[in-house]
Design goal:
By secondary structure, this protein is an alpha/beta fold. The protein has helices at residues 182-191, 217-230, 249-260, 277-291, 296-311, 318-329, 334-339, 346-354, 357-364, 391-401, 437-448, and strands at 19-24, 31-36, 41-44, 52-53, 57-61, 64-69, 74-81, 84-91, 94-103, 121-131, 137-147, 159-165, 196-200, 237-247, 267-270, 378-383, 406-410. 28% of the residues lie in helices and 25% in strands. The relative contact order is 0.11.
Length: 451
Amino acid sequence: MKRIFLLTILCLGLTAQAQWYSGTSQKTGLVLCLHLTDSTADLYSPMQTADPIPISKWSLVDGRLTLECKSIGLMMELTQRGSTLSGHWKQGLFKEDITFLPTDTLFSLQRPQTPQPPYPYDEETVTADYTDSQGNRVHLEGTLTYPRNPGAGGVSRQYPCLVLVSGSGQQNRDEEIMQHKPFLVLADYLTRRGIAVLRYDDRNMGASTGPLDSADTRLFAEDAEAMFRALKGNPHVDPARLGIGGHSEGGAIAPMVAARNKEVKFVVMLAGQGCTGRDVLLQQNEAIYRANGLSERLLAVRMACMHDLFALPAGSSQKNHKAVISRYTKDLSKAEIDSIGLGRGTAAAFKEQMESRWMQAFLALDPADYLSKVKCPVLALNGSKDCQVLAHPNLDRIKTLCPQADCRELPDLNHLFQHCTTGSPDEYTLIEETFAPEAMQLIADFIHGTK
């Protein structure tokens, strides 16, 4: 699940006389880059996008650089000290000191697993147009990849097929995040091994359309089922070996569809939840703050406060949220309050997040409602260092609710199935690996074994 509600930090780099500079945010691990000439300034967040971020105004006078990006609420003040630029920048409530060093070019991320064309297999566009249960017209579009191996007499050969469903937050068919493309990498791996794969853009992303205001996990499950149905009769897909899998929220959606659609022949849950949505978010909060080095004393304060915030009745006032936070922070220093993410503005932000339709539905989501109804083979994989959907509590409950599930905890992998150090989301960007080969091999072996 990508809804982890952390501040999004942007990358900056600085220059005078056409010089690149780059620095690293110590709080997030993201690289910041800016290119400055005598007459232009270009701001970049290379870990997030290749496009420059608009600068509304800037100046470089007597070795002092100031710039503002109104569109993202960012301000920066830096002073030249020898060959470096040092100072601070802030974005909203976030503020950090930072130092930039000269470099030769814009920082670029390495993604060695991302496949490049030409591919040794074929692909085609698959679409689904349908009306969801709320009466909304939805258009979904994706890519089906399948082995290049026509059958005898020109008749298309049919292959086992996996439909992939992305995690929370609107994503394209590659499930792209910080220039990683997990679904493209997985689809390429599986298709090279004789398995067709359909991946699609979420509604209101890429080539897909459909309203989001009232959308929640169960509505996204309708989208996934529509794409699953779109493969019926496809000459490259074997209907007796057609399954559905997903990552994070998609890992909850896949068994949700299988519970009501008996044409689903197998399910793959990648970091899918077995616990309720409320428990997953509380587990996630504790794991991320612990992975980021918060002391056990302050972690206990953070978690006690979060439990009470989650317990507030729906529609509680911002005043009530502030009262809960104040009760737990009144004896803490400002630095301690900031370290546990309960500083100024938290009450309003938390209230807004909790009142969204998606969040209300996710908090109430209980896999017990559907996992016990899944009768087809199930593969459930979680990384041992996943801080967003923890392996033990979720895999244990998946196994309890769905006894035939093959549940595997994979050593040293995070939520994105990357080999990692701590599992914190702060690591995702700088890790070059997109998808651990051993995890992809398990998926391929499972699908081929469900004949």
